Amino acid sequence: MDAINALAGIAVGSALDHARARRPTAKDQAQASYDALFHPADPGGVTMHERFAVALFVAGLHGDVVAMRFYGDGLTRSGAPSALAAATGMAADTAAGQGPYGSFPAGLLSREDAPGPAYRVPATERAVTGPRLAAAFEHAHMLVLHPRDAAPEHLQALLDAGWSTPDIVTLSQLVAFLTFQIRVAAGLRTLALVGAHA
Amino acid sequence: MTQALHPTGHPRPLEFTRAILDWLPWLEPPGADALTPRQRESLVDPGRAGSAYFRLLALDPDVLEARTRTDRDIFYNTDAGLPRAERELAATAASRLNGCIYCASVHARFAASHSRRDADVQRLLNEGVDADLGERWNAVVSAAVALSRTPVAFDASHVERLRHAGLDELEIVDLIQGAAFFGWANRLMLSLGEPTG
Predict the structure, then answer these.
(1) How many pairs of residues across A and B have Cβ atoms under 8 Å apart?
(2) Which of A1, A156, B15, B193 is surrounded by the fewest CB atoms within 10 Å?
(3) What residues make up the domain containing B89?
(4) What domains, with CATH codes, occur in chain A?
(5) Residue B1 — very low, low, confident or very high, per pLDDT cuts 50/70/90?
């Protein structure tokens, strides 16, 4: 099953299915990216629960109910306890906001600074996620909503919470990939709704 | 315990520019000689072994390789669809909004060289995503910006405006994929290191 077609509701043989087929490598390799992140041959240092929980959190930050259902189902299928899905959903609800915001390097661009909150997972949800996954949610919030605030201290927080350098690369790719996948699917859904011109 | 890197003493770009920049990692990437055969293969372009950014991403080779091949088809497959210049314009607009000075520099150069509209591209960098670049480019930038916001703000009005500006279905799909790809690229560049130059 093609994940973007599933998220966008694109039927085989539809106009958008044909349009996507004109970029066959983009379609296949977006799916290969999804598979590498969510059905890896070897998950290495990042567990399947962590992958799907972060994905559900990121979908929630986007307020994208289709993606929330998709990754919520993935989290359940990964064998995670239902308490983790519930805590992740609660965390995303309180973390959501409007992006992108954040600060530029101090100087000419400072007039465009749009300060906003950094996110900390509340104690109730942290009790379920544990500190390592909580650190991943906090990092994902920065990446999704205020990426221009990124600093080495954010990576240090992950390192201190037990994420290795390769784990951080995988986590960063996972969150960044989802911002792509969710945007492609949302864009294509809108395009399909407006309908093709004759 | 691993420590994040804190590069110091290098020139930091303080505004959006079309100048050629470099990038310094905040995590130690493997050395070019330390890459495994699979990591080296995942670079797709062997020359990328010289880049700290790509050597760092090669720590998850399956994702890096798929990402690189996705990128190339979205931007370089010129079997019809959106002109290269406007795919690069969408990438520049997304990078300008998100605040990725490095990504914006690369793709503003591409947008300018493909369109020969250097002054308009520079206006986008200087003034931001509300710069007036003429209706067709304004429609492309506005759509790329709406796609880049969280929650995604791209709606029927953007599609209608793009169609009115003359874009067909495949061109709009190219625009959606090009802008969305820079959601991915900007976040990696912004969060794993910093620009210099």
Answers:
(1) 215
(2) A1
(3) 85-185
(4) 3-101+114-194 (1.20.1290)
(5) confident
